[in-house]
Every structure is written in C-alpha cells, then in structure tokens.
C-alpha cells in the first residue's frame, strides 16, 4: 500500500506524462494546490491535571483567579506607577519585542518561499571586431539585451508549508516569551518595592529603638555616677544601644540595593529612584482572600507554559520540513529575452527567445543524511514535549509553594503580632518595677532587647506576606495584560539607501 506522499508523487508523474506537451497555468496551479504534506500534524497534548490543588487552605478558592492587574489590590499608587514605567522602559522587554519582530520577519520570509520568484535582467555590450586582412575594416557594434527569469518550486510534499508553519508557531512563541518576560518583570518590581519598604521600616525601627536605648544608657550612666546603678548596668545599656545602632548601616545597604535594582528594572540608572522613595511609605498589605482556581487554569494563564506548548508545535512542524527533503522535488523554470543592436529596437525589431519547462530532482543516495535529519527533528520535538510537561509541573509546584507560604506566613504574623504586644507590655512593666526597686536593671535591658527583636520579626513577616502574595499571583500567571506595541524598533537607521561610504 503506497503512502500518502508516494500517491501524491505517482499522481503528479502520471499527470506530467499525459499532459507534458501542454503544460500551462491550470496544470501548475493544480500541482501547487495538491496539498500533499509529510510529517506529523500537530495536536496539542492532552495532559491529565488534578481537579484541585493539593494543599487545602482557607486562602484557596475554586473560582478563577483575578489576575488582571493584581497589584492594584495592594492600593499603593507608587507601586502602580513603577510597574507602568518598568513595562515601558525595561530592557529585557525591549529585547523580547525585538525577538517578536525577528520571528514575524522569518515567517514572512518562509511564506515567500511558497510563491514564484521573478528576476529582471538587462545588459549592454560594445564589441569591436578586428579586421581580418588589410582590405577590410574593423567592425564596431552594440548589443542590448533585456528579459525576465522566473522559477517556482512546486511544494509537492509540503516542505515549504511545514517551514512556514514552524515559523508561524515561532511568532506565537516569541509573543508568549514577551508575556513571560513582563510577568517576571511585574513580579520583580513588586518584590523589590516590598523589600525597599521593608528595609526602610527596619531602619526606622532601629533608629527609634537606638534613640530610646541611648537615652536609657545616658540615664544609667548618670545613675552609676550617683551610685544608684552598677558599672555592669551602665556598660550593658551602652552595649545594647551600640548594637542597635550597628543595624542601621546594614539596613541602609539592603535598602539601597533594592532601590538600585528597581531603577535598573525601569531601564534607568540605578540611583534614579533614591530621591523619589526616600520619604518612605508603608509595606504593602495584600487582601486576605486569593483565588487560585483549579490546576488546569495554568495551562492558559501561565505564559511560560504557553511558550513551551508553542515551541513544541514549532518543532513538530520541523519534522515535516526535514521529511520533505527525502522526496523528489519539481521546479518550473522559464525565461524570456529580447536582444537588439539599439535600445529603441528592443521589443520591436529585436530577436525574442523564451524557454519553459519543469525539472525533477530525486534524492537517490545521501549517505543516510536525510533520514538522520528527520531523526534529529523528532528527537528535538521529544525534548520540547518533555519541556512542556516540565513547565506544567513547575507551574503547579510554584502555586502549591506560594499557597503554603502565604497561608503559613499569615498565621506566623498573627503570633508575632501577639508576641510584640506582650513584649511591649513587659518592657513597660519592667521599667516601672525597676524604678520602684523591685527588679534588676538587667531585666529592663532584656525586655528592651526582646521587644526590638519581636518588632523586627513583625516587620519582616509583614513584608513576607506581601512577597508571598506577589509570588502567588506570579505563579498563577498574573502579569501585564495591557496593550504592548512591539512594532517600534529599538534602533532607527538613517541613510540606508545607496550612498558613498563615509571615510574612516
């Protein structure tokens, strides 16, 4: 039983045998539209997905996640503005836009291979023939020639069609890569903004605490001189204040690092945002409920998953492209030329010649290279199939981890808040009892140290909740869903027509 490509070839050869003397446009058109293609037709893989997320917590909801501009839920105008600026100016986004333009141009290039190519030719020669003997004279004449050359490869087995199909999937993949880049960008901007506000809060806490502890140290030093406190009390009070003050430069470094990274994410110099953010602001507080939907949602919401699926489609089409090279190819070539001894005579008194006919190329022996090329394409397709499965699993893992982190961090924050409140009462009580002479001064210092540590942990937990909220929305596929113009080139060339090269 002949295969489909072999049947196509037999039909084509039979057609040529019967009608070869009268090959014309309708015959060419019927061959071009034969529709024979080789290689597998792409079908989107059907993956078995769980009906619900593995971790059942109070923050989960079966309704579809609300991913459109999710950062607006944080109610922070400064963050909103930074994300807008980042999408417009980020260099990774600009690079991804250029990749889209490249993919679209490659697609147009591949589609052009399905059409005939026509070239115009023209020539002019001046010829002098030497005299054959003394009685004759030299002859000088001009020769002008113009014409057209045309060729058309009949895509009988769909090699060019598969190449165009792969290029079209490549455009889809490039667009998904841009979406994935913007998803990562939005998440990074939000995360580094949370970090900047966190380190500002920690720095301000260290400053306030250090001022209070420095006052306590001064008072203790005065009491020591008056004989109502010991040298140990004075030394420990001084050490505690100095230790807290030492935390301030550490937080300043971390704050500056976050701000500088934000500047670069916006496509600007690192120090651009220092003046803008120095006034400080609260750590963003996300809403309590986060909809996670069902695992199958990530197949359509995560751009990295969609990217992996488009790449799988692209490399499936490339199998057919490689397979088509193993079959015969037919090309139609023709030319028409006119020659005359003067330009005015071209097309009038000139000689006109033309030629037209098909050519058949049959691969007979290539040392197994063509079959090996197909095997290479199939192995590449398999790699992208596995990569697609891995992308889905990785996306599910991201969601599961983010849900657990956000849920547990909220519980931790509640405990830390209660702890800080208790330490605050303990500190006030220790000071009162110490002033009444009931407790030792070391109890006061220990209470102040514990309060400072508890308030540090509370701020860090608040920042972790915001960071986990960002991570969850990012894991669910929440990114930039606004219009993105990828047609504008990053570099606008000038003077690209024919011109003299500038002297170096």
First-last Cα distance: 68 Å
Helix fraction, binned, reads 55-70%
Averaged pLDDT, please? 88
The CATH class turns out to be: Mainly Alpha
Low-confidence segments, ≥5 residues, pLDDT <50? 1-23
Strand content bin: 5-15%
Q: Give the helix/strand class.
A: alpha+beta
Taken together, the total number of domains comes to 1
CATH fold label: Outer membrane efflux proteins (OEP)
Give the CATH architecture.
Answer: Up-down Bundle
Instruction: State the total count of DSSP E strands.
Output: 4
Architecture blueprint of SSEs:
Blueprint: H1 4-19, H2 25-32, H3 77-89, H4 91-112, E1 117-129, E2 139-154, H5 159-226, H6 231-265, H7 274-277, H8 298-301, H9 303-324, E3 329-340, E4 351-361, H10 369-435, H11 441-476
Antiparallel strand pairs: 1-2, 2-3, 3-4
Helix pairs in contact: 3-5, 4-5, 5-6, 5-9, 5-11, 6-11, 9-10, 10-11
Spell out the key features of this protein.
4 strands; about 500 residues; Outer membrane efflux proteins (OEP); single chain; elongated; alpha+beta; four-stranded antiparallel sheet
Protein model, in words:
- The protein has 504 residues and is α+β, with helices and mostly antiparallel strands.
- It contains eleven helices and four strands.
- It has a single domain (40-122, 143-476), classed as Outer membrane efflux proteins (OEP), CATH 1.20.1600.
- It has helices spanning 4-19, 25-32, 77-89, 91-112, 159-226, 231-265, 274-277, 298-301, 303-324, 369-435, 441-476; strands at 117-129, 139-154, 329-340, 351-361.
- A four-stranded antiparallel beta sheet has the order 1-2-3-4.
- Helix 5 packs antiparallel against helix 6, helix 5 (159-226) runs antiparallel to helix 11 and helix 9 (303-324) runs antiparallel to helix 10.
- The longest helix has 68 residues, at 159-226.
- The protein is elongated, with a radius of gyration of 38 Å.
- The protein starts with a helix and ends in a 28-residue tail after the last helix.
